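worker-3 :: picked Short chain dehydrogenase
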Amino acid sequence: MSSPPERRALITGASSGMGKEIALAFADIGIHVALVSRSLEALEAVAESARKAGVEAKAYALDLSKTDQVHAQIDTISAAFGPFNILVNNAGMGYTESLANTPLEDWQKIIDLNLTSVFECIKGVLPGMREKGGGTIVNIVSIGGKQVFPNWGAYCVSKFGLMALSKALAIEERPYGIRVTALCPGSVNTGLWDTETVDADFDRSLMLSPSTVAQSVVHTVQLPPEATIDELILMPNIGTF
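worker-3 :: tokens ->
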């Protein structure tokens, strides 16, 4: 009886929050993980925890906001650790400001990180997935990719764009056996709410936990090859977006 194929995943934004929990959840089910974010020290701590579950785990410091470098760097990571049959695009930033008061520089930063870097990561792993005859790409979109909120305009634009990217990619790559899921969580209790670019006063105890989102990602990647989740909206059940 043949053994199941080895699974290797690339996870962006893996040093904390949802990315960290996804990495550890993958490790628990035997998926080897390559971890990407800007903070090598924080990534190394996550990688060490993942290795305790018996999988390979390696940290790669990469600033995804430098979009002109992303494709080449993902190629390098794929050659060293891959090829990948799972990609989780989790890295992103929050931003609150009215559209009228959003500077062009800020607008470009949001689009670069939340949308263009995802596009470049995808291009970095697609050749390997096609060569292997399949794979799963999970884009962490946000409920902000399904509905808009006042003073979250630029953020929502980036996430609506990511939703369109996910749906177009799913259609184009289906003949190659590659599945694409757009995961749209509502508010998740992560460090996003502590960043300088976000000004929001929500009760974080009512939000989804990162581990709950991770469970949904695990379910998505473990579906049999003939099934896919095109879009999954995951909302808190206690009264907050």
